[in-house]
Amino acid sequence: MGRTRVTVGLVAIAVGAAVLVAAVAGSGGSARGHASGPFAWLRPATPPTGWKAARTSSGSAFAYPPGWRAIKTDPGTASVALLRGARIEAYVNATPKQGTETLANWRRFRTGHNRGEGDRAVRVEASTSSAPFRSGRGSCVIDTYRTSKASYREIACLVMGSRSSAVVVVAAPVGLWSREAPALERAVTTFVP
């Protein structure tokens, strides 16, 4: 009888541990501090050899591949693009935190921001509020939207560091996403707010 109780107790502990592991994996984070699911690629990394650095006026930085060029956007931001003629085929931007965005409201804030800029058919594909970065934690959203010129897919993350907070956004036309995603995702992994 004593052995049966011990066996039942051990089985209950094992089931409880399995449920806990499944809950952590399903929440967008993991016990080791890595993102999971659609954000499994998001592991903080140093820039690859040969990549250049772009910095905002507040010191946020990301790396970008050779062949990409700095482009002029809003004051205080850092933006680079892969250009083919006048067409932007992929884009990375870092901007200091400026509004009421928080890690908790980022999904709603970002999609509202896109709509406010006139984007249509904004659709969230995935989001997480537990993304690891080189010097902080972040909330990220993967979404698609349509402008008057094209349909885009983007990854947008609000990252809270120990000294500052900033936003990193990468985007490409939907039709070019699969080709450009490896470089775009790698740029995100190098981001420091």
What does this entry look like structurally?
The radius of gyration is 20 Å and the shape is globular. The protein starts with a helix and ends with a helix. The protein is an alpha+beta fold. The chain folds into two domains: 31 residues; 153 residues, Mog1/PsbP, alpha/beta/alpha sandwich (Protein Transport Mog1p, Chain A), CATH 3.40.1000.10. It is built from three helices and nine strands, in the order αβββββαββββα.
**Roughly how many Å is the radius of gyration?**
20 Å
Helix content: 25-40%
Strand content: 35-45%
Most strands sheet: 7 strands, antiparallel
For this entry, what is the oligomeric state of its chains?
single chain
Q: Which architecture of the largest domain does the CATH hierarchy give at level 2?
A: 3-Layer(aba) Sandwich
CATH superfamily of the largest domain: Mog1/PsbP, alpha/beta/alpha sandwich
Which features characterize this protein?
Protein Transport Mog1p, Chain A; 193 residues; 9 strands; globular; 25% helix; alpha+beta; single chain; seven-stranded antiparallel β-sheet
Strand and helix layout:
Layout: H1 2-26, E1 52-55, E2 61-64, E3 69-70, E4 78-84, E5 87-96, H2 106-116, E6 120-133, E7 136-146, E8 151-161, E9 165-173, H3 177-189
Antiparallel strand pairs: 1-2, 3-4, 4-5, 5-9, 6-7, 7-8, 8-9
